[in-house]
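dumping this here before i forget
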Amino acid sequence: MTLDIRYADGPLGHEIRGVDLAQLDDASFAALEQAFDTYGCIVIRGQSLTPARQVDFSRRFGPLDRFVLERFNLAEQPEIFVLSNILEDGRPIGLGGDAASYWHSDMWVSHRPPRGSILHALEVPHRNGEPLGDTCFASTAHAYDTLSEEMKARIEGLQAVFSRSKYAEYVELQSGTVHAREMTQARKSLATDLITHSLVRRHPRTGRKCLYVVEGVIDHIVGMTPAESEPLLAELLAHVVRAQACYRHRWQVGDVVMWDNYSTLHRATSDFQLPERRLMHRTTLSSASLAIPFRKIHGTSARGGLV
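structure:
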């Protein structure tokens, strides 16, 4: 089938129109999944998903992961992770966005990070009629494609050493919140302090090469000192997040945004506080769903769109 796509100005953040995620037939779902694989970040507005329906839709992609802080997972649907600044009886009902306001892909502490996430907006904060709490996305696949041939040759085969300790220092410096410290503590059971990833990784489904740089957490490149590594890492990150390669999502109630952890980076914009309320439900696509091969079910247009 043909999807109705409203293209963003950059390489990702395209809006899929005219679909009800709770009632997708198989052909429509296959087309949507291909758009997700192809672009890395897609937007579907006007959805009204109960937690059960969000989980059912998410499971069509494959197995799901649970968030590491169990107390922010819904009791009745623990695959749903709550992002919120709302307090009930003085306690937060979800994780605030302040620990995610740096350019990252989720769960880089894992040898095999989850495939991606699906985030559904239930309450969006506003001030003076304008929405707050935007989320920014950048395409690491487009970033690799637009590197010079000299830079591609320079970084081919390089390994980057990611550090949980460096992350803890960086995020606490940025936010200083209890939740940031909780996140680092929870991740201690998931990995050793240092984990090595390829600086250029091939997407398991599409085969596209993507840069793997995360802000503030890479200690060094194997074979280089931290001081020698830093200029190259800074140059690569700046290339990934330059304005023409990014999409900034302004949330509306009913929005569903899907992002791919292999071909995108994202960061939260924490520009709101109570009584400005935010409530989002997130599901996480397990890395196990990457095993299903990517198959083109349509041709592509000149700009890479589905036809």
